[in-house]
## 1
Amino acid sequence: MEQPRQLQESSLPRKTFQQDDEIDLKELLIALWKGKWTIIIATIICALGAVTYALLAKQVWTTEAIVTIPQISDFSNYRKVVGDLQPAFDIYQEDGTVLVSNKLDQFVLPATLFDIFIQQFELRANKKAYISTVSDFKEALNKLTLENQDDKKQLQDSQAALYDKWYQKLSALTLKSGNQEVESFTLKGEQNTSDKSLEFLNGYIDYVADIARRVALANIQSVLQAKQSELEQQQSLMHDQAMAKLINERQRAQYALDIARTAGINKPQQNLGNGDMFPINIGANALAAKVKVLDALGQKQLTIIEPRLQQIQAKLALLAASKIDNNLAFSTYQFVENPEAPLSRTSPKRPLIVILGVLLGGMLGCAIVLVRHAFREK
């Protein structure tokens, strides 16, 4: 009988511990109800703080536009200029056939022009040059300069941070859909008002579009300059070869003339030294006329000796006459969606901030009441 009694007594502390460890929901609800004013006050304070932050926080408005590769009609002027230069790159063979070069094809691809536009949009040097003209940025930069004019290191760090902050206000994000084969980009511009964000993005798009247009023209001009240099080298080489051939032919004709006169052969003779080094079969009279013609040939007549010189001269003349207009109008992109003034701010999200403030206040109030209740129970 003593052993069961000992077991029953040993189980009492454990049962008491389990009862102490259990949570009495009714007791907690009563505690929360008694501390309702604490919860209400905490909720009101947090809600007021959230409202104050939502009203005073700096607003961000974002204007967006979607761009993609241009249509051929968007750069038809540019395409025509490049097409007119094509003969300078083609190869004309002796049998009259023409091997069309494809060296200029890559410059008139819509994707190539669009890549130039996106690259220039993302280039930090372009962003820096553009935002330096924005009045709000200039005001912020002047303020930093006045505040840190005595500390050059701090001024440099502050300016770098300001530039980096403004760089992020202009962005280009890849836009892809499941069935979309053509790549598109979403362009974004952020400012503190709706109208300013629209003006900010539109201004930068126009600024970058002009740079992209000039880069495309500069690429063509660099190719033309390289081709012109190549043709000039070929012309110089062929000119020297033609002159050497002319001099050699003149000397051979003179030697043949001397031999024919010595042999007394003045008229053409059949089967007489036609294959010799100094053929005299045409006679001294004809040889004298040949020497006279060769002596009369000048620089402009070298195409008779080397016909390929005429092709090179024609290509050089084409390149010289084809002056690329730096003001040529064309587009390196097209809008899928034009920029429009945003109807709602990007941040702060005032309703969401207020709701979160109310929830945070309620949770904080409940936590205070429950912690206070726990200490009282102990």
## 2
Amino acid sequence: MKIDLPKTSIRVLLVDDDENVHLLIQHLLRKVPNKKFEVDWVATYEAGMKAIQPQTHDVYLVDYRLGAENGLELLRKANSMGVQAPIIILTGADDPIIDLEATKGGASDFLLKDRLDAITLERSIRYSIQHFETLRALQKSNERFRLLFERSLDAIMISEDDGRFIEVNPAACALLRRSRDELLQKCLSDLLSTDVAENSFVQLENNSFGELTFTLPEGEHRFAEFSACRFAHNLNLCILRDITDRRKLEQEIQEISEREQRRLGQDLHDGLGQMLTGINFLTKVLQQKLTTKAVEPEAKEAGNVVSLLNQALSQCREIARGLCPVVLENNDIHAALQQLAETLEKFFGVTVTLVCDPQVSIGDNAVAVHLYRIAQEATTNAIKHGKAKKVSLSLLHSKTFLTLRIKDDGVGIPLDALKKKGMGLRVMQHRARMMGAILEVERLKEAGTMITCKVEHSRTGKPPAPMLLVAETPLAKSRLKKKKLAGV
């Protein structure tokens, strides 16, 4: 940091009981080229304290011996008053003990009177002012940081590389419900829930961010989003924000959205669908009457209307099924994915391969709905944005996880989309969070995109038997095949 000296004259206060020293200082400073110094002089400790108190000088030169008092005492007194200028101690003896005491007391420099010359004195004054200005700037910066640190509503924690906290703010103590002394004996990993599915991390060079769960002393699990970075050697900053209430609200909104989708699907099926069916029946009757009366042109037009009504009715049913898959009411994720695959092939003309375990049991309807919606969003994006011609869907299990994977042969998700996260990715990430799952999005090297969602069996039901159902659905030609899983 470059600190410029004052452009006007530099005001110096000399506190020394020897007038000859005053004359010497004035003489030496007059010899300094291109700089002007104004030197004020007082001869006693008391006069020195009185002259320092207004703090109107840029630097203070203080003799070590001032009668019954000494310069070190004046230095300590001035520091206690908050003097905002450097103090240089002058002495007639080269005593390393006095030098050390002066340094410990906050003196900017320690000069021998009998070795003074213009260059040494000017350099000492210049360096002392620069050093003091640098320290003052650092002090102000530290005060601002301390104010932000103490008053922040977010939990802020500073740790060493081994994870041990070395400083925490009051918000961290309130969030984690532990005292500062307790937290300084812990690492962040000591506070995290052991359920890895609840913790989502993104690592970018020396920065990381994401969401995690932590456990309060009474055993309650809370959700937090965090941002962490390394800001100095062996020093790491972590900021936590409690989002438990937000997560609950998001879940309520999601449930309301699902209910509204089901209602719209049922209204389409039971309302509009039934009306289209009735109109279709009446139009067929009209076509038959026109045919009986040999009114061929009109009968043909009526036939065209019947054909259009059949198409509209089919689309209405498909939309209703997409909004409200009936099979999901019984948590039948296999049948729902089968319907999705057939719908994609029918409307988009792509080849969809479905691979899933027929005995996967999902007891929580919300988990079944979330998995279906993630598959629906991912496959639709692959076809519409990725220009995919082939899409594979799989629902497999391991000892710990149930894994939904969607892979396509399209152009691949753009790298900037992975960083910015569009609406589709955010919706899938949100659904994964709602069921405590891990969502991974990967741009494949060869072609296409792979999206993987892993959810623990403890959230879905008991682990299924190791059987595999393979289904390829090129339009109306579905072939199903079962085989034993080896090593899955």
